[in-house]
Amino acid sequence: MSLRKFISNKSIAALAVIMTAFANTSAFAQAAVAETAKKPVDMGPVYKSAIFYALAFLLLCLFIAIIGKALKVYELTREAQDKPKGINWNTVNAVLFALFLIVGLYGVYWEYTVHGNMILPEAASEHGKKIDQMFNITLILTTIVFIATHILLFGFAYYYKYTNKRKAYYYPHNNTIERVWTIVPALVLTVLVLMGFLTWRSIFYKIEDPNNKPISIEVTSSQFAWAIRYAGADGVVGTKNFKLINSINALGIDFKDKNTLDDQSADEMVIPVNKPVRLILNSKDVIHSFFMPHFRVQLNTVPGMTSYFEFTPTITTEEMKAKTNDPTFKYLFLCNKICGDGHYKMQKEVKVVSIAEYEAWLKEQPTYLTDDLRKEFNLPVTPVAPAPVDAVADTAAVKTNQLALKN
Ligand SMILES: [Cu+2]
């Protein structure tokens, strides 16, 4: 069989396949129309369905395959007629590389300008500013390196495309270049790592201001909820023991410890602005991650182990609503570790308020100690009025409690 005949046979076969495919599609379409006519179902706009995109993708593949085949036919025809090659694929590849660079760099610019606005608002905590500064320095450095290396990579592929006027130069090794591209990144990374280390150290090991002592809040994670415990008037979150966990004592609080008697439970986290907050974090079942994105706070909560984090909120919820121009703005804390199928439910609101609002809110929160728990721990059923820590020793009620504890 001659080449020309082979090509035409092949083209007819390909055409037949395409025709069959289109015929089938139209048969499908007819069937679908008939079906829709029978019972009208509102499927929403067509572009919202996954099948639409799957079909569009298949159609694109088919289109590319047809173009590919047509080009092949064109080339084979030229070859059969002993004509020089019609398409210089080296040039096509080189131009595609250059196009990819331009489109890619525009994509980077677009990402930074359009999605750049979607990142978190400014840090709402003292140490958060340092974290953001570190993040920005790293981002600027890596962006410069990213753009430079990609211009070189795609630029070389375009500029040094194959031509029979030039021969490749064999250049296997250069010690100076090796030294430069080893030492420069090593130095930059050393500076970045040291900066990270020193920033982290300044966040964790800071000297406590005796005039502005932190308020303690305990957060316990479990699948799939958070329990918040405030220290109460004494400022101390009392001890827990997992062996005491039962249906009425979900956290296993040890009420033999007098520091627990005024501990309060809360459904949301309310914290005063410009006052340090000491978080006491632990977990009842698996490892979760306590995450407060706006305050740049994240720490694992680990069963059998307590972790701590101290931070100072600097922007109230109301101020942030104004700054972000979003009246629905809410601070959140959430779980940042896939801990099971209900993981997505693990989030609670954080409200940053003035100290006066905080104190008023705290008064409304119930104590963990209920009458049932008083009975279980042999404590007098008359509730103990929360009192300042200095006055606690003088309170008759506490004396009664201590007596009860001794018994
Ligand atoms: Cu989780």
TrEMBL record:
<keyword id="KW-0812">Transmembrane</keyword>
<dbReference type="InterPro" id="IPR002429">
    <property type="entry name" value="CcO_II-like_C"/>
</dbReference>
<feature type="transmembrane region" description="Helical">
    <location>
        <begin position="92"/>
        <end position="110"/>
    </location>
</feature>
<dbReference type="Pfam" id="PF00116">
    <property type="entry name" value="COX2"/>
</dbReference>
<keyword id="KW-0472">Membrane</keyword>
<dbReference type="GO" id="GO:0005507">
    <property type="term" value="F:copper ion binding"/>
</dbReference>
<keyword id="KW-0732">Signal</keyword>
<keyword id="KW-0249">Electron transport</keyword>
<dbReference type="InterPro" id="IPR011759">
    <property type="entry name" value="Cyt_c_oxidase_su2_TM_dom"/>
</dbReference>
<feature type="transmembrane region" description="Helical">
    <location>
        <begin position="180"/>
        <end position="200"/>
    </location>
</feature>
<feature type="transmembrane region" description="Helical">
    <location>
        <begin position="137"/>
        <end position="160"/>
    </location>
</feature>
<keyword id="KW-0679">Respiratory chain</keyword>
<keyword id="KW-1278">Translocase</keyword>
<feature type="domain" description="Cytochrome oxidase subunit II copper A binding">
    <location>
        <begin position="212"/>
        <end position="364"/>
    </location>
</feature>
<dbReference type="GO" id="GO:0042773">
    <property type="term" value="P:ATP synthesis coupled electron transport"/>
</dbReference>
<dbReference type="GO" id="GO:0004129">
    <property type="term" value="F:cytochrome-c oxidase activity"/>
</dbReference>
<comment type="function">
    <text>Subunits I and II form the functional core of the enzyme complex. Electrons originating in cytochrome c are transferred via heme a and Cu(A) to the binuclear center formed by heme a3 and Cu(B).</text>
</comment>
<dbReference type="Pfam" id="PF02790">
    <property type="entry name" value="COX2_TM"/>
</dbReference>
<keyword id="KW-0479">Metal-binding</keyword>
<keyword id="KW-0186">Copper</keyword>
<keyword id="KW-1133">Transmembrane helix</keyword>
<dbReference type="InterPro" id="IPR008972">
    <property type="entry name" value="Cupredoxin"/>
</dbReference>
<protein>
    <recommendedName>
        <fullName>Cytochrome c oxidase subunit 2</fullName>
        <ecNumber>7.1.1.9</ecNumber>
    </recommendedName>
</protein>
<feature type="transmembrane region" description="Helical">
    <location>
        <begin position="50"/>
        <end position="71"/>
    </location>
</feature>
<dbReference type="InterPro" id="IPR036257">
    <property type="entry name" value="Cyt_c_oxidase_su2_TM_sf"/>
</dbReference>
<feature type="signal peptide">
    <location>
        <begin position="1"/>
        <end position="29"/>
    </location>
</feature>
<comment type="similarity">
    <text>Belongs to the cytochrome c oxidase subunit 2 family.</text>
</comment>
<feature type="domain" description="Cytochrome oxidase subunit II transmembrane region profile">
    <location>
        <begin position="112"/>
        <end position="207"/>
    </location>
</feature>
<dbReference type="InterPro" id="IPR045187">
    <property type="entry name" value="CcO_II"/>
</dbReference>
<keyword id="KW-0813">Transport</keyword>
<dbReference type="GO" id="GO:0005886">
    <property type="term" value="C:plasma membrane"/>
</dbReference>
